Amino acid sequence: MILSSEEVQIIIDCGYDKEDFCYVDEEGFIRLKNVNGICFFLRDNKCIIYSSRPQGCKFYPIIFDLDTNKAIVDPDCPLAVSISSKTISTFNKDLKKFIRKIMEERENSSEEKEF
To answer: Is 32 helix (H, G, I), strand (E, B) or coil?
Structure first.
């Protein structure tokens, strides 16, 4: 799950250390850590930061496909067949906005590293 820097700060404000729950991937995106294949914040099948969960978690299982430039259902999600195309299209605009924000942050972050 990709995180915005604002989301990272919100989670830090909940009392978690950045190094524990996220990392920067090889493409420069901040990502939520998984532990043994599950989200760092998932305990007993429940999100322990639910009220402060990242935007990507709120959208899930709808994700943004950069190749087609549109919202799709994560094919790995067991609930994929239950999500209507109307629901998917409802999220498209908000997902595009979120992706633009993340891309801008990544670009600004890489520019700052050059100085």
So the answer is: strand
Residue 49's nearest CA partner among 99, 83, 9 is 9
Taken in order 8, 108, 91, 32, is the CA torsion positive or negative? Answer: negative
CB burial of residue 64 (10 Å; 0-12, 13-18, 19+): buried
Q: Over the stretch 15-58, which tens digit does the pLDDT of each residue have?
A: 999 999 999 999 888 999 999 988 999 999 899 999 999 999 99
Tokens 């969960």 belong to which residue?
53
- The domain segmentation of the chain, as residue ranges, is 1-56, 60-106
Question: Which single residue is written with the structure tokens 């950045």?
Answer: 18
